[in-house]
Structure formats: C-alpha cells, structure tokens
C-alpha cells in the first residue's frame, strides 16, 4: 500500500480530495510528502496475529509482544476468548436472527470471505453473537465484537478495563524517531473506523452519565531515549458518555504503569492538529467506514511534553514521574529525543458491577507516518 502524496489522498479504495487550507505550522495539511513509519500491511495468515492476555503484568512492556507484525490482542476476557476459529458471520446479524428488526444490520461491519474460520476467533467453534465475543483479521481490516454477558468478571484489572487492540509494535533496535531535523515534520496516525453496534444494559437503570462505557481510541506510545521511560498519547474516536455532550477537555493522567495524555479528535484539540477530510470524535454510533487522521506537529508534541512534565512534578511518586533529566523533568523536553514503540486502535470497556454491553467495531488501513 502506497502513502498519500499531493492533493489526491488514497484511502484504501476511497479517494479523498484535498482542500486549499494551509496549516499555521508543521506539515502542510494538503500538499505534503508522506513517509511511513509503518504503513498498513495485508494480513494473509490471521492465525499468526491473534493473541490473548488475562494476567495484568506489574510493569507492562513497550514494545508490547508480538513485535514486528500487525496483531489483534484481546485482554481480560478469559482464557478461551480466542480459542476457536469460528464460521458465524460477526459482521452482520443473520437473516434468521430471532428479533426481526435486527436482521441484516451491522454488528462489526466486517464480513470476511469464506471460509470465515480462517479470519475469525471466538470462545468456541459454534459461537454466535449471543454467546461469545469475537475477533476478526483479514488483510487490511480488523473487527472487534465485545459481549460482556460472556465475560468472566473476576479478573483483576487496574488502570483500565477489558479491551482489544489492533496494533503494531516495533522492536527496540528498529523503533523509529517520531521527528527528524525538519521542523515541518509531523507525526501522523490514521485509520478508517466504523462503530455500527452498541447495546448497553444496566440494573438498576443507570443515572444520567452512568452505565457501561465503550471507548475507541487511536493511540501511540513514545519512549524517551535518554531515560528509557515511556508515555502514551490517546486520540479519542468514540465514547458513549458524550452522545449528547460536547467533546471532553484534553487531560493528563496515569494508568498505574505510565503517564498518558488524552484528547478527542476534534478541531482546536490541545495536543493534535485536525486536517481536512478527517472525521471527528463522537458519542454516537455509525455504519460505514469513516476516515480519521491526526497530525501531531512538533509544537503539539511540545505541549504534550510540557503537560506531562507538569503532571509528574506534582506526582513524583508515580511510576516514571520522578526526576530523570538535568532540567528536573521526568521526560526530556526535546522533541527529537523520542521514538515510537507501539501504536494502534484500542476498543475498551468500563463496567460497573451490574453493567452489560454488546459493541462492535471495524478498523481499516491503520498506519503511522511522517508528513512534511
């Protein structure tokens, strides 16, 4: 798959036409040269790319295994979460589904070709959307269907919730710098995504703002070469808590393992620049792939570093937050000191004791780039 150049942007099979808008700083948002840090790959043997994890490591490694290939990892869904190839179509509700209004509607939106067992994994061989979660990989596409009615609820997880990740991890020797010496170079993440299905349930009925939470984020982890410390950038695509509210304000937090900054994909986001043609954060579901792209200019990244260091100065007891640089910061303030270790799309749930949720996500053409 070739990177985008000039004013015609190739997104899978779709053609995105540029607009005559020039950025204030960083790469031109329309007329740019793209260099892949990692371009999309076509997965032709899905059996090598499905992984699960059910024990939370005390110190999560970055890069995350597996290394050097696109993968789909499922965490905290039970030992059998991806144990079986499965033939059911988890892209759509079947035409024989017991409730007629749902027949033929999208679940993940991804229906891989036959034999589907080559491209899908679930908890048992005859799994259906009513008795299992399911996960899909085919060429440039990935699908994640999470069904909490089938989850074990006794797994100990802190700093997050049950989730799946479609992503890529670099090995230490080849982890690329996110910026070069050109001040106009941007770090860019992009993917096309659809979230066609979201069915929450809570008992007693949740108060406004309560109930189960479903989130989808683009993300990247960065490593400070000098100290070896990592932190994460989350770029929010979807959060059901904001279906009728404006996007949340960007923030800095810590998940128990590493600091992270989070911002919705939106105009005037503090930590990123929204280019023409990109879709934006929402709390409402949609059917059909939407294209999301985020530029992180070097000025954007300096704001990230400034805010992470300010957060850590107030919380030196947290992992990676103690002083490690001559300037008294936890992290180097120099943008050229950073490598990318991991990136991807995370589909994550937050659940109360009585919450249940069924949710489908489809991801296409994920990649990380330098634009200049």
Pick out the low-confidence regions.
Answer: 1-24
Q: What's the mean pLDDT score?
A: 89
Helical/strand content category = mainly beta
Count of domains: 1
Largest sheet: 8 strands, antiparallel
Backbone CA Rg: 20 Å
Shape: globular
Fraction of residues in β-strands: 35-45%
Contiguous helical run count: 1
- Strands, total number: 18
Report helical residue fraction: under 10%
Order of helices and strands: EEEEEEEEEEEEEEEEHEE
Index terms:
single chain; 372 residues; mainly beta; 8-stranded antiparallel beta sheet; 8-stranded mixed beta sheet; 1 helix
Characterise the protein shown here.
This protein has one helix at residues 298-313, and strands at 8-11, 14-17, 34-38, 50-53, 71-75, 84-85, 120-122, 134-138, 141-147, 163-169, 186-201, 213-224, 230-239, 251-254, 259-264, 286-296, 338-350, 356-371. It has one domain (8-371). With 372 residues, the chain is mostly beta strands. The protein is built from one helix and 18 strands. Strand 12 (213-224) and strand 13 (230-239) form a beta hairpin. It starts with 7 loop residues before the first strand and ends with a strand. Strands 3, 6, 7, 8, 9, 11, 16 and 18 form an eight-stranded antiparallel β-sheet that branches. Strands 4-5-10-17-12-13-15-14 form an eight-stranded mixed β-sheet, covered by helices on one side. Strands 1-2 form a two-stranded antiparallel sheet. The protein is globular. The protein is 4% helix and 36% strand.
């Amino acid at each position: 798959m070739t990177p985008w150049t000039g004013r015609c942007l190739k997104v899978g099979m779709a053609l995105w036409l540029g607009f005559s808008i020039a950025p204030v700083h960083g790469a031109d948002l329309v007329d740019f040269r793209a260099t892949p840090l990692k371009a999309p790959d076509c997965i032709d043997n899905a059996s090598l790319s499905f992984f699960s994890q059910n024990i939370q490591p005390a110190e999560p490694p970055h890069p995350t295994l597996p290394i050097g290939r696109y993968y789909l990892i499922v965490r905290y869904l039970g030992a059998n979460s991806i144990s079986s190839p499965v033939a059911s179509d988890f892209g759509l509700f079947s035409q024989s589904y017991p409730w007629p209004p749902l027949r033929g509607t999208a679940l993940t939106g991804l229906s891989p070709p036959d034999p589907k067992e080559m491209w899908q994994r679930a908890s048992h061989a005859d799994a259906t959307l009513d008795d299992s979660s399911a996960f899909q990989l085919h060429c440039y596409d990935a699908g994640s269907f999470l069904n909490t009615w089938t989850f074990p609820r006794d797994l100990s997880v802190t700093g997050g919730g049950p989730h799946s990740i479609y992503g890529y991890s670099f090995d230490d020797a080849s982890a690329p710098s996110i910026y070069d010496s050109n001040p106009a170079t941007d770090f860019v993440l992009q993917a096309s995504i659809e979230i066609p299905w979201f069915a929450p349930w809570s008992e007693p009925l949740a108060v406004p703002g309560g109930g189960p939470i479903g989130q989808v984020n683009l993300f990247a982890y960065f490593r400070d070469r000098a100290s070896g410390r990592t932190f994460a950038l989350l770029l929010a695509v979807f959060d059901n808590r904001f279906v009728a509210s404006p996007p949340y304000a960007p923030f800095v937090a810590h998940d128990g393992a590493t600091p992270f900054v989070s911002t919705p994909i939106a105009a005037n986001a503090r930590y990123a620049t929204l280019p023409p043609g990109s879709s934006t954060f929402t709390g409402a579901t949609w059917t059909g792939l939407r294209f999301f792209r985020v530029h992180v200019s070097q000025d954007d990244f300096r704001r990230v570093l400034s805010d992470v260091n300010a957060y850590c100065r107030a919380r030196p007891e947290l992992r990676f937050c103690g002083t490690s640089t001559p300037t008294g910061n936890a992290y180097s303030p120099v943008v050229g000191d950073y490598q990318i270790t991991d990136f991807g799309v995370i589909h994550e749930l937050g659940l109360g004791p009585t919450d249940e949720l069924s949710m489908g996500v489809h991801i296409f053409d994920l990649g990380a780039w330098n634009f200049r």
